[in-house]
Amino acid sequence: MAFIPSRSKRHTTDSGDVKLNLNSMMDMFTIILLFLLKVYSTGGQMVQPSDYLTLPKSTVEKVPEVALDLSISKEWVVLNDKPVVKISDLLSSNNIVIPKLQQQLLMYANEAEKMQERYGKPFSGMVSIQGDKSIPYKVLVKVMATCGKSKYPNMRLYVYQKSS
Amino acid sequence: MAFKPSKRSRRPQEDADPNLTPIMNLMVVLIPLLLSSAQFIKLGMIEINLPPASAGTVTQAEMPKEVDKKLNLTVTITDKGFYLASSMAVALGEKGEGPTIPKMADGAYNFGELNTLLTKIKKKATGVFKDSDQIIIVAEPEIEYQTVVSTMDAARTFEQENQTEPLFPSVALSATVM
After folding, report:
1. Does A16 fall in a domain?
2. Is A161 touching B (CB cutoff 8 A)?
3. Partner of B88 at 20 to 30 A CA spacing, among A24, B12, B28, B156?
């Protein structure tokens, strides 16, 4: 049998102000906020890992520095967000130095040297290499050799840190 | 002269509710902001410093400037396992041939064993050789980047009495015959 509300009570409402109890939500938010503040690094993430490649994992603890960005994906060698050489072209050539990449690198090195002359910003010869974890050694060596021959002898291999 | 509060104006105390709306506003803004900029994956970096371009050699840690007793410790990564060699000797496998440290039964590289062996070498080499913190890594052309990085990890540090000591932190990569 259905419950039939009495006719007289049907249109009565409670007194105007209904209070929402926010306490538990506040607790939750406070905890989330504290957690995120703890995770958040004050320096911010200066180095953005590329989206289209998976870096290898390593146990190093050095924090990345910002440098000329060179990434090696499965298909392209990308310098400062501009594709330079196809990996297949790179593999088919017997030359250990990659001419196209060397040309680009020397251009950046010249710019940086000009900056050093004019504004005193020292040219470190530093290049950051983000390589996909599955690229073969010969590709890595060719790219690194080219960097070494193009005024960028200080290489930084970026890796994901293994959580210990 | 202080006034005495009147007794008549006392009303029953109401529940004082703080107004949480501004705090809620703040939270709603802050949490997405922090979430979007939070760094959940930590990046690291391996330093490899070469001397600026030198003709002939391609990627080598140091050109021999003076004749010193050099260790020239070299780890070669092949698809069968690791080969270890130095200027003094070539470390042989258990059977007298084959890789120094063969792959494990499941086909994975035995990085633990490599680390143990390198630790032994490090202890003997410290103080005797000038380049007792350097290692040269050579790999076959088809070896994956991840394997090379893991080998560098195995060669970087070792544990001694719960302390992490540097092993061969200065890594040089060498090109093999392509």
Report:
1. no
2. yes
3. B156
Q: With bands split at pLDDT 50, 70 and 90, how would you rate the model's confidence at B138?
A: confident
> Residue B70 and residue B72: Cα distance in Å, rounded?
6
Bridge partners, residue B74, by sequence: B85, B136
B-chain CB neighbours of A41 within 8 Å are 39
Structure tokens at B82: 């690791």
CA distance B28 to chain A (A): 9
Q: Which residues of chain A have a CB within 8 Å of the CB of B42? A: 160-161, 163
Give pLDDT tens digits for A50-84. Answer: 777 888 888 877 777 778 888 888 888 888 888 88
Please answer whether residues B71 and B131 qualify as being in contact, where contact means their C-beta atoms are separated by less than 8 angstroms.
yes
Pairing of β A154-161 and β A57-58? parallel
**A43: exposed, middle or buried (C-beta count within 10 Å: 0-12, 13-18, 19+)?**
exposed
Taking only residues 75 to 104 of chain A, the set having a beta carbon closer than 8 angstroms to any beta carbon of chain B reads 94, 96
For residue A59, tell me if it sits in a domain. Answer: no
- The answer to the question of residue A89 being in a domain is yes
Rounded distance, CA B138 to CA A131, Å? 18
CA quadruple A95, A98, A102, A103: dihedral sign:
positive
Identify all chain A residues contacting B49, using CB atoms and an 8 Å cutoff: 153-155
How many structural domains does chain A have?
A: 1
Evaluate if pTM is beyond 0.80. Answer: no
Asked if B117 contacts B84 with a C-beta cutoff of 8 angstroms, the reply is yes
With H, G, I as helix, E, B as strand and everything else as coil, classify residue B125: helix
Q: Is the residue at A99 inside a domain?
A: yes
CA atoms within 13 A on the CB side of B122: 22
